Fold each of these.
Amino acid sequence: TGQAQSPIGAESQLPHLQRQDGHYALVVDGKPYLMLGAQINNSSSWASTLPDVWPALEDLHVNTVEAPVYWEQMEAHEKTFDFSNVDLLVHGAREHHLHLVLLWFGTWKNGQMHYVPEWVKTNPAKYPRELNAYGKVLDVMSPHSAATLEADRHAFAALMHHLREIDGSEHTVIMMQVENESGSVGSVRDFSAAANKEFAGSVPQVLHAGSGTWSQVYGADADERFAAYATAHYINQVAAAGKAEYALPMYCNVWITYPVHALENRDHPSPGQEYPSGGPQQENIDIWKAAAPSIDLLGPDFYSDDRALFHRVVASYARPDNALFIPETHLGRDFGPNFFYALGHGAIGFSPFGVDYTNWTISDRKIPAFLSENFALLGPIEEQIAKLNLEGKVQTAVEQKGEPVARIHFAGVDAVVSYGFPQRDGEVPPGTLDASGRVIVAQLGPLDFLVTGFDASITFVATTAASAAPRNEQLEILSAEQGQYVGGAWQSSRNWNGDQTDRGLRFKSDNKDVVRIRLHTLPLY
Ligand code: N0T
């Protein structure tokens, strides 16, 4: 799926996704890179608002900013391009030592077409809209129009051409989002004559779904799957045209399907009514993967406080053929726990939405600590986490309500995690009020771990495989060094010992420490 297999090293290579045994890293300038991201508000990519953007990003401690590029602004007049907003973003990001992910607000924005230029909006004869089943004209472009596709491709290719010119050697821009939350709001699919004709035809071979018409192959889901193929096929061609100019990694974000309220007597929300039909939702991933090979990954946006749902969404999108990336989440209390959870499932990046001081999502120019502490803690070790995630060596534990103790399994060793303080000998740990305890344990060697987190203590215990003979050994700490990475090498600033280790490594709610703990086993006899 478009991952270069070249070894890490060359400084000059383009940002790309590297895959290893089904694990991923985004590689930037030869190094694995964990995107500690933030997306700015929709109408913030302007000269008048950018001064209110940068300080918020700094306060959240991000290393990457996601910012929109508006087709309507970039090509207000057909075939004449204005890259001034793009240039401001690239230069501003450089000035603030940030990388940039650009979001192409083109044919689709949240399942509608509100960012197409006026010359597209006002010429539906040339650039047709979708029609719903009753013939109503929607504010969604038809994905079955060669003219609209050509116009979008042309504009996106021009953007990529420009980026290669201004950024081809600097790599400030590391990834592109092609369209935004695509799909159709208002109808399960396009019912225009052009669409109906294709719907009556056969399902393309490339989907490996069997042969027959859409209705024969997909039954009751035919309309929605048809919309998914049409949208994926269209966007794939936009991405391919862009990559032909400048081959950055490209992804699509997803307005996922959220479960129907438990009191309602139906098991699936309605496509085109409750979410944009034909986008890369959970049920459409296989179609999108087959129909859009130029899209490197599909990344779910997550707007819910339901953590169990987040875990299911991660399970859907973290696949051997799809790197996990969360391009948007709301600025809620679950940000930290969900961020840690995603890291434990190989995420290459995580990005809350609405981070700027335009007074839309954040008031009083103040980022709450429960948000900013996360990237502040992990920023200094982002490269190590990205590298270890590529090797499948990162695990996390996130507190769940009513479960104050958790275990993380490694070969021969468990990390026992106790949430909340105070913790007293012989007592069950108290947990935290909002189940916000979270830890990351990355394995550097068989008995060598990088550990940090919030509101939790960690002890290590030897485990014995049930089938093997009892090991009769005791596990001891050789050293627990608090420290940091400098130029890729671990540098210790002090040893934790005595009270700092005897009852576990303790990471309080305002923790800023990272510890490297080395253990050994002593045979008892
Ligand atoms: C997101 C954002 C922005 C049960 C919303 C979320 C962004 C877009 N759309 O602020 O518009 O550009 O990608 C859709 C959320 C559906 C929530 C359903 C909750």
Amino acid sequence: EMHNNNVEKYDLQEKVILVTGAGDGIGKEAALTFAKAGATVILLGRTVSKLESVYDAIVAAGGAEPAIVPLDMKGATYSHYEGMCATIIEQFGRLDGLLHNASLLGVLSPFEHIDHGNWHDLMQVNVTAQFLMTQALMPALKKAKHASIVFTSSGVGRKGRAFWGPYAVSKFATEGLVQVMADEYEGSSIRINAINPGATRTAMRARAYPAEDRNKLKTPEDLMPTYLYLMSDASLDVNGQSLNAQ
Ligand code: NDP
């Protein structure tokens, strides 16, 4: 079976990987997949019950015991992320992988109707929180022999589209941050890339396209080869790329 073959191909043994938005959708699948490949995963998200069920599934499958970080990135400040970094160094000694997966879709609407509070919250979660978390976690990432930072982009982060307002702008910002960081850290132990999942069967997609047939969409599981590749040592010389998972 393709999924299992890929889990065997990409070994994440000895890796400590933090996944944001690990309770649902693509992030949940990534956390389960990384654990299956041997990683110790840190599950960050805002709904504790969802994180707990991912934790249980990993332990039941015989994976390394995960850590749970309940956090709403909308309200989190730099000091939350500094505390996280200290705890990660204390518990694991380093951070080998950081998957920025959590994000808000917000409300799709015409430009003139974009709600100001919605714009602000979306930029806070999708852009500012990811910047603050990454900056605060650099000491833990620098302690890894090789570290991989993976951001999550979107088709509308490369070509704008009507009514996608703040979400699209936030994904352009993500692509920009990847390019800036990748140029800056080129040749170091840290590589920075993005993944565009493409249309995927999750709750977010269903909110954006309520009328489509979900069964025709790829599942989070279908995307995992790209996620495993960027987290594994197979991608050591890949930096500054924005890869399509489909
Ligand atoms: P989902 O909405 O299904 O899952 C997102 C996860 O992120 C949820 O677990 C959610 O928590 C968590 N999250 C959201 N906001 C916060 C916050 N403020 N603090 C902490 N955690 C938060 O999304 P997908 O799995 O579909 O999307 C994952 C990524 O892929 C996103 O970055 C998205 O933009 C991107 N993407 C998805 C596509 C698709 O077709 N699905 C296409 C292109 C890009 P909770 O469970 O509590 O709501």
